[in-house]
Design goal:
The structure is a single chain. It is built from 32 helices and eleven strands. The chain has 775 residues and is α/β, with parallel strands linked by helices. Strand 10 and strand 11 form a beta hairpin. Helix 25 packs parallel to helix 28 and helix 27 crosses helix 30.
């Protein structure tokens, strides 16, 4: 191990070991030896591991799941449709209300057949109170919304049931009337004002007003409800008013928010009335294809259709593939209904696209950028008219409900810490992905507006906005690779701005996760391209997704280093492009190691790390050593706090001789010895080692890992002396004013343990190895 030598004030001495430079360098400066003029930098270079962290932090949930890989109506080469089935609950056929002037002579009510109500009763399931909070308490039905609404109906003869239109609220209202004792049923016109409902009540009848509007402009007041209750008591009748999820009703009345039963309970209720050919319903409910459809609340009407499919599978008329594809088919049907509907304005459709892009993101962000997209779409549909955005139009609650979405509160990570935000997401987890695919492939006339919009988003200062632009481009790339590459991704990759190139790298990484073809081939070609911007994009993309094909990625990065030498670049020294290559290699090695640690399978990670020492010769020696140094910096906490990931990888790997974990530990130690023995890389290596010791001062696990690592680095007496000198002369950071410049306690403990493993050698006092290492 050589003594650290004085180096010019460049990448090896100051700053974090993995930062790569004493001061941040311009992100877009031309590579050495490339001959290109320097680009205008728009921001500082971000470390490759941080890019990977931000990508995973801000990507929508559907991006990295299995469900993203199967989409559309074509699954495994087969076209699957949906037909047949008895649908219960609410089926929305449009919201048009007709108004008539003049005398009111039309009929305002109609009989509901008793047979329809009894058919509903055979498979109706009451929601439990624990369906709402995830608990499982005995007697949950007695505390659920149905029981509370029934109590109000029996007491006052009138109840208000509010909820989203897809939750089976109409079926629940009819069951309430039936349970309250009604034997005949009538549907009243929802267009009637609250004060006119009394005149339409019939003796001894159960009345239903579906889709009743109770807004601030048309409220349902206390005197309306009291008048209805008085009349219903006199005529021995009952009335259930079904409204949207946010009605304007007085407090203290029979208003009950409605939520449907759990999806598996609802499906089980429908299967009770189906011919299952002798199959057990519990067995069918346990099928993985069925469970995947029931992972979240679906529209009640869709669950009824799905029950027909499950029964068809039991009878042998529906394949297992079609059963698993049902959720995608249903989502595709819903999306096409939205885009084909005249009831959804262009403003509504722009909001739907923005919601698909920003699913699980803060609502204000979705609404803001949806309006930007609306203006761009308006220029295509009505080029001569300015876009008119209603500032105080439809309420956020109504917009979210119309999109079959829901709002919730959740902390959003920011650079200053978590901030509680109101977020919005589609109820059906498959909707966002399906909608983005449909708008790109099914509505090409919208592409100019979408491309302009995504380019704007990719240049936004907010990380979540930039990441979602890349995620949307990834969906388009998976759905139509040639068009998305030509119209969007390649333009980003060749852009002089760092943000645009990072958007391209993110898009390609996420497109690979979605199953897009040929991504690895694109990256391999760009990695050796004469265009340094394409090279940067490919190198950064390898940091983001290279762990999916690690050997291929590491080989491509190594060839890029050799390509630099062939183009006349310096073999020694750390130009910015070489730093990017080393950072990406470090990121993919750390990612593979994290995955190995999580699974307890060290074979894949060991293969990569064991191969690195063999590469550490010739043109790639500096690349391998610098990648090792860069891998030392990232930690498992924010802002550099927490345990260094590489140290954690060493500590968690199995130490039993002959195992993959032991091979991994030996490989890491060999790389460390090469770093500390190299005249160029040693200063950065020592800086990283000091950081690891400081991190271990408050982390017993890190201290234990260093206790195992340091003896492997001291292969001679001279090595022992130098490491002991480093530990004795390490100082706390920042200095403790009470104690002054003293070594951290952990450094002295590690020194003492290292002394217990000293290799016998010449006696005599140990002289300091040259100049004291930088503190």
């Amino acid at each position: 191990m050589s003594t650290p030598q004085e180096q010019p004030p460049a990448p090896d001495e100051p700053g974090p070991a993995y930062a790569g430079a004493a001061a941040p360098q311009a992100a877009d400066s031309a590579p050495a030896g490339g001959g290109e003029a320097a680009d205008d930098a728009d921001t500082e270079t971000e470390h490759a591991w941080h890019s990977r962290r931000d990508l995973y932090r801000h990507s929508p949930g559907f991006m990295l799941g299995h469900s993203a890989r199967i989409g559309g109506s074509v699954v495994a080469g087969d076209q699957h449709g949906v037909s047949g089935g008895h649908v219960t609950g609410d089926v929305i056929l449009g919201g048009k209300v007709e108004y008539h002037l003049g005398g009111d002579t039309e009929e305002r009510s109609g009989a509901i057949p008793v047979t329809e109500v009894e058919a509903l009763a055979r498979h109706f399931v009451q929601p439990r109170a624990d369906d709402l909070d995830g608990t499982d308490t005995p007697g949950g039905e007695q505390d659920g919304p149905f029981a509370r609404a029934l109590d109000a109906l029996r007491k006052d003869r009138v109840a208000v049931l509010s909820g989203p239109a897809t939750t089976g609220r109409r079926a629940a209202a009819l069951m309430l009337l039936r349970e309250a004792g009604s034997r005949s049923y009538r549907a009243l016109d929802p267009g009637l004002g609250a004060g006119r409902l009394v005149g339409e009540l019939r003796d001894g009848c159960g009345h239903l007003v579906a889709d009743f509007t109770a807004t601030a402009e048309r409220p349902l007041r206390e005197h309306h409800l009291r008048a209805l209750s008085e009349r219903l008591h006199a005529t021995d009748g009952h009335l259930v008013l079904v409204t949207g999820p946010h009605p304007a009703v007085p407090t203290g009345t029979g208003h009950v928010p409605w939520r449907p039963p759990a999806p598996d309970a609802l499906l089980a209720g429908h299967l009770r009335t189906k011919d299952l050919a002798g199959r057990d319903a519990a067995e069918l409910l346990g099928l993985p294809e069925v469970r995947s459809v029931l992972t979240h609340h679906r529209p009640v009407a869709e669950t009824a259709r799905f029950a027909e499919h499950v029964a068809g599978y039991a009878r042998g008329t529906v394949t297992l593939a079609a059963l698993g594809a049902f959720g995608h088919v249903a989502a595709e049907r819903q999306v096409r209904t939205w885009f084909d509907s005249a009831d959804h304005t262009l403003h509504d459709k722009a909001f739907l696209i923005a919601l698909a892009t920003f699913d699980e993101a803060p609502y204000p962000l979705t609404a803001e950028l949806g309006d930007v997209l609306y203006q761009l779409l308006q220029r295509i549909e009505h080029p001569g008219e300015p876009a008119r955005i209603p500032v105080f139009g439809t309420s956020s609650a109504q917009r979210v409900e119309k999109a079959l979405a829901e709002r919730y509160q959740e902390p959003e990570q920011t650079e200053w810490g978590p901030v509680l935000q109101t977020k919005v997401q589609f109820r059906d987890k498959l909707t966002a992905l399906t909608l983005l695919r449909e708008v790109w492939t099914g509505h090409p006339s919208a592409r100019p507006a979408l491309i302009t919009w995504l380019r704007r988003l990719a240049d936004d200062p907010r990380p979540v906005v930039r990441t979602r632009a890349a995620a949307t481009a990834a969906v388009m790339t998976e759905a139509d690779l040639p068009s998305a590459m030509a119209l969007l991704v390649r333009g980003w990759a060749a852009d002089r701005r760092l943000r645009a190139r990072l958007a391209a790298a993110n898009a390609l990484a996420l497109a690979h996760h979605l199953g897009a073809p040929h991504i690895s081939r694109i990256l391999a070609e760009w990695c050796t391209s004469p265009d340094h911007r394409l090279r940067w994009t490919a190198v950064r993309a390898y940091a983001l997704v290279g762990d999916a094909f690690p050997h291929e990625a590491l080989r491509a990065l190594t060839e890029a280093v050799r390509g630099m030498e062939a183009r006349g670049g310096p073999v020694r020294g750390w130009t910015e492009e070489r730093e990017d290559l080393a950072q990406s290699a470090a990121a993919l090695l750390l990612a593979g190691g994290q995955d190995a640690a999580g699974r307890g399978d060290w074979s894949a990670a060991a293969d990569l790390w064991v191969d690195l020492p063999a590469l550490a010769r010739g043109a790639t020696r500096d690349f391998v050593l610098r990648a090792t140094v860069h891998a030392c910096g990232p930690t498992d906490g924010p802002d550099g706090a927490g345990r260094p990931l590489l140290l954690d990888l060493f500590g968690r790997a199995e130490a039993t001789p002959g195992t993959d974990g032991a091979a991994l530990r030996q490989a890491l130690a060999a790389l460390w010895r090469s770093v500390l023995g190299d005249p160029v890389a040693s200063a950065s290596g020592l800086h990283a080692l000091r950081g690891w010791v400081r991190a271990a001062d408050t982390d017993p696990g890190a201290e234990a890992a260093l206790t195992g690592l340091l003896p492997l680095l001291a292969v001679s007496v001279e090595d022992h002396r130098r490491l002991a000198y480093l530990l004795e002369n390490l100082r706390t950071e920042p200095l403790d004013p009470a104690t002054g410049p003293v070594p951290p306690a952990v450094a002295l403990r590690l020194r003492d343990r290292l002394a217990g493993t000293r290799t016998p050698g010449p006696s005599g006092p140990a002289d300091p190895p040259g100049p004291a290492p930088s503190r």
